[in-house]
Amino acid sequence: MDGATKGRRAFLKQTLRVGALLSVSGLNSSRVAAREAQASPLGRLDHVAVPMRDTDAMVAFYRGLGFTVREGGQIVSVHFADQKINFHRPELWNGGSFDLRAPAAEPPCGDFCWVWEGTAEQLAESLRVVGAEVVAEGRRQGGRDGGDAMGDSVYIRDPDGNLLEFIRYA
After folding, report:
1. 86-90: long-range contacts at Cβ-Cβ below 8 A with a sequence spacing of 24 or more?
2. CATH number belonging to the domain at 46-169, selected among 3.40.50.360, 3.10.180.10, 3.40.50.150, 2.40.10.340
3. pLDDT above 90 covers what percent of the chain?
4. Most confident region among 75-79, 90-94, 106-110 by mean pLDDT
């Protein structure tokens, strides 16, 4: 492996580590931010954006899971802690003039993971309420502790087919 490849890998690893550490809501975020700010100017993840197909189904699904949902003319935003997902309405991403997105982005193209801070039973009940089918579950490596922490994950799909993971750390 040449020096440039090692440098890129080191940069990506550091970037992912900083993002993972800073995106964990409420866990010593100011202390972590101060420590990590010395290594990189990157802060926490603010939002991601993906296109959606079925606005009504997506709004009902995310509201049913307990997210705060805001509907705008071109996007529907789903809020949790200090982060959000912007779901672009079909009229926006199919319109032909919207170019602030990945060139080939169309649903389903999202893969999201949230830390579930409740019990396994509470998660199961939340998923039951929205009619979500568990597609996989098991012990996984998550984003905490620089990507070294292990947690119990449950995977489902939203109405557009995006993959949603809920990880519980012990």
Report:
1. 86/47, 86/48, 86/49, 86/50, 87/49, 87/50, 87/51, 87/52, 87/55, 87/58, 88/49, 88/50, 88/51, 88/52, 89/52, 89/55, 90/51, 90/52, 90/53, 90/55
2. 3.10.180.10
3. 51
4. 75-79
